[in-house]
Amino acid sequence: MEPNLRIEQALTRAIDLATAPPGPPRLSSAIRHAVFAGGARVRPKLCLSVALACGDDRPALSDAMATALELLHCASLVHDDLPCFDNADLRRGLPSVHKAYGEQLAVLAGDALIVTAFQVLGIVATSAPTRSGRMLATLATAGGARTGIAAGQAWECEEQVSLPDYHRAKTGALFAAATVGGASAAGADAEPWRALGEKLGEAYQVGDDLRDAICTEQAIGKPVGQDPLNGRPSAVAELGIEGSRRRLDRLVQDALRSIPPCPGRDLLRAGILQEMHRVLPCKLSMVAA
Amino acid sequence: MEPNLRIEQALTRAIDLATAPPGPPRLSSAIRHAVFAGGARVRPKLCLSVALACGDDRPALSDAMATALELLHCASLVHDDLPCFDNADLRRGLPSVHKAYGEQLAVLAGDALIVTAFQVLGIVATSAPTRSGRMLATLATAGGARTGIAAGQAWECEEQVSLPDYHRAKTGALFAAATVGGASAAGADAEPWRALGEKLGEAYQVGDDLRDAICTEQAIGKPVGQDPLNGRPSAVAELGIEGSRRRLDRLVQDALRSIPPCPGRDLLRAGILQEMHRVLPCKLSMVAA
């Protein structure tokens, strides 16, 4: 089955399970809004691509890992948009969850999505204990307070921030979990896959900082110019636009070089390049060629 | 080892792991504030009591379940205290997390505690796949958007609320997870333990509503009179003080009668009665005798 379709079907199964009656209807609706609002599914696609490159002999496991990562990502977006953080009215061109459903349901939808992410891994855990143990640890690290997305967002509340540490946690954590988790789901030796995820995560974050600096709200479906407005550390603030473009280029090249030997190496490489072109601002897509 | 000590040691191990360097120091501090601020540990004590009543042959599993439940509970308290919900300045006589660390770190500390709860179960998952699968499902249900604490809090955002559904999700879910999870951790048939948790959860919630109505802020370490102020459904609003006292009494009696046959039945019964006396408002403690 085509990866995009696999991902949407797996997400639908997970959210149907998490929001079936007798749950409170407005919370269910807020959760669906958070998950099914046109996300690019970058992380689950990367996870499935790595699993496929490693043989993908247990698709139920790679589907679960991909789904869990996307749910954790959606949770972080909902919470990041809250008034106390970015106070963003728009996300992917639609009202953010707190704008559409209020702040209370946005907090709770994010919480429920974190729970659902782990629930999805819990469902497959008994059938493949060793792989699932690694997948659970990978997801927990990616979400956590040390090097995960909670840490990444929290670095914005510290007086001293190192930009690479901040980016590694805020964005790199879920990308590293996508590659390590995808390899784990396929029963491969997972640690050699970490560098690919880390490099792609950094590249994606630099790309995001560039989009914030040079794109229009219409083009990317969310407010731009937010990084300087929120005093947030950004590659553009540190390296300028040209410096950030060079950094992005180097990160993508490093990422591709880091791919471990595996049956589907060439296909994975092509898929990653295609994906990076798709998600980067159009003016910049030549740099990663 | 004495249960209180087991719980504190297990919580300390979990939080040390979740907040070790290189995590952002203020987030780590906010997480510690949320977990180590004098909680009564009602849910993990209930979990260990049930595990002990069922033989507790794998204490690492019951410790993990008890810890995970308390972390999920702490997360819900941090988020419930936020300005968009209760806007509570105090919790257990200390500043609430958002008062002490700001709203951003309160959101993130709650998120990280949910992640850590599942991480703790993930650590023991490979060593006992069948029991851990049940424990993971139990935790996910207890935290979730259908019948878990996210649902419970979200019922406050609906126009139509049934008080039993609301209480069952908001408080009963974690109590049911404590009994079902404790029994699962000990390898017992877990479903027959659900009624005990559900009844105790309802009793505890009715007791909480009564505390809000008749106690002083000094006596319980948090603002009182919040339920009518927040237009929140409450047993006192529906049944009055006398009606709530009678309901509480009946729930505790039903709970004790529901205990399934097990080696440690009498000790468990005595422990539950002692615990209910300890946590209920002093003026009411006679009712549960």
Automatic annotation (TrEMBL), chains A, B:
Entries under InterPro entries matching the protein: Isoprenoid_synthase_dom_sf, Polyprenyl_synt, Polyprenyl_synt_CS
Superkingdom of this protein's organism: Bacteria
SUPFAM superfamilies from the UniProt entry: Terpenoid synthases
Gene3D superfamilies: Farnesyl Diphosphate Synthase
GO molecular function, one term: (2E,6E)-farnesyl diphosphate synthase activity
UniProt KW keywords: Isoprene biosynthesis, Magnesium, Metal-binding, Transferase
Enzyme Commission code(s) on record: 2.5.1.1, 2.5.1.10, 2.5.1.29
PROSITE patterns assigned: POLYPRENYL_SYNTHASE_1, POLYPRENYL_SYNTHASE_2
Pfam families (UniProt xref): polyprenyl_synt
Cofactors: Mg(2+)
Cleavable signal peptide: none
Listed GO biological process terms: phospholipid biosynthetic process; terpenoid biosynthetic process
Family in the record: Belongs to the FPP/GGPP synthase family.
Protein name per its UniProtKB record: Geranylgeranyl diphosphate synthase type II
